[in-house]
What does this fold into?
Amino acid sequence: MADHDDRFMHMALALAQAAADAGETPVGCVIVDESTGEVVAEGRNGPISAHDPTAHAEIAAMRSAGTKLGNYRLTGLTLYVTLEPCAMCAGAISHARIGRVVWGADDPKGGAVIHGPRFFEQPTCHWRPAVAGGLLAEPAADLLRSFFRARRKGTAAAATR
It folds into this structure.
């Protein structure tokens, strides 16, 4: 499956761009069946439009995957996301029993896999997926930087009116 990682991360990046185009923080997620290579579900950030603080890309994709598969356990799946998962998403990933998590850009402020609480390393974490970070990290980070740069410019322009 690892040879297909770039293709799936590019799909997640396209979803992140769609989130940015909708005014949401640009994070995208794709969930893939490890045995078939089939995309099971997709998600993109949507807390603002959904009025839901839990509407992160990973949560949206896991909800869709659970519905499609008819199971809250998502074993045998790989989750590709453009940004290191936060603590909420890491907890949901663990509860869902996702087999593998691959992310693009690291998140030193809000990440919870290799930053912050290092969720999967905690003794209270009952399921630890295989993890790999840094896949297409630069395009993922560039998308985030340009999104927030544009927002800051918009805020500065609005403040001068």
